Amino acid sequence: MMPMHFFFSDKVVLLFDFWNVHSPAGMVLSVLVILLMAMLYEAIKVGKVKLLQHTMQAIPTSLSSDRLDVSEGASVNSGPGQPEHSTPRRWFLYHVSQSLFHVVQVVIGYLVMLAVMSYNTWIFLGVIAGSTIGYFVAYPLLNVR
Amino acid sequence: MSHSHHMDHIEHKMNSSMVTTTESHEHHHPTTMPEHSHGGGMMMMEMTFHFGYKNVPLLFSGLIINTPGEMAGAFVAVFFLAMFYEGLKIARESLLRKSQVSIRYNSMPVPGPNGTILMETHKTVGQQMLSLPHLMQTVLHIIQVVISYFLMLIFMTYNAYLCIAVAAGAGTGYFFFSWKKAVVVDITEHCH
I need a surface site. Which of A57, A69, A75, B170 has the fewest CB within 10 A? Predict the structure, then answer.
């Protein structure tokens, strides 16, 4: 029967029926995997924003090289609605990759939720630690250009 | 109950024999044992991912999937629910941005002439709580929370088909609805 409260144990079945942990070593490994998953979740959130920033920067420069020889700053100020018409392929690629990122984010988010739902305290602590480390490491990268 | 349980067991063995070669029997005893002792009308919750379309409870007590056709219907319904969820999130965001833009335009010419009219801008911001856009946002927020919990509970069935439906719906919804959002973000970024 499913446990309904947190408990410490080195026995747990996580997500798939082949992910069956019944030893301290296996538990350490599982916690590490879950920790990495929680970190990856934070990294993907940041990655989506980074991708947006990256595309934002790339498009005005391609605009200026395509159309008129003005400096980058001037082309940024030029047309607000123009980029998505002038380089639709790039936008499409950006949008597809952003959507894929989103799917991965949703899936990992649910998987982490299900792992927490095992009510195993070690796994739970792994999720919290992974989320913390992921946030701590990934968010400063937002400001790096 | 015993019949369906038997079916479940067979399905499990088939499933796990594809993945793990030898230990499938050992693996399954701990998870299936409590089901025997329970016996009553309560449905056993699955604890790992599985493909199956028999005896899958879905959110409400009357909704139990038993045939492939019902599973296909549930797949489509969940897919659209997840899509709708993504659309709702993005719609809320753009709605919020729209109301903020109108407020900013209202307040922008005000501080120019003299200092007394500056009070008026504060008043308009304060009235935000009882305004129509905010009421709208609140109602949409309730809908969003309910749907997100539904999706979470659907994922919690561990049924692989339904989980795929949630993920695919989220992806498709994001793909179609955030197309416009990307452009909107672009405009605001440039206007800064």
Answer: A69
Whether residue A135 lies inside any domain: the answer is yes
Q: Is residue A122 a part of any domain in this protein?
A: yes
Q: Which of B47, B166, B187 sits opposite A2 (nearest CB)?
A: B47
Phi, psi (degrees; rounded to nearest 5) at B159: -80, 120
Q: How many domains does chain A have?
A: 1
Question: Which of B170, B178, B189 lies nearest to residue A56, judging by beta carbons?
Answer: B189
Q: Which domain holds residue A134?
A: 12-57+86-142
Residue A3 lies in a domain: no
In a domain, A71, yes or no: no
Contact list in A for residue B175 (CB cut-off 8 A) is 95-96, 99
| Distance of residue A38 Cα from the nearest chain B Cα, in angstroms | 17
- The rounded distance, in Å, linking the Cα atoms of A48 and A97 is 9
pLDDT digits over A52-67, tens only?
888 888 766 555 444 4
Strand pairing category for A20-21 and B56-58: unpaired
What pLDDT shows up at residue A83?
Answer: 47
With CA atoms as reference, the chain B residue closest to A1 would be B34
pTM of the full structure? 0.70
Residue range A58-87: average pLDDT? 50
Residues in B closer than 8 angstroms to A4, CB to CB, are none
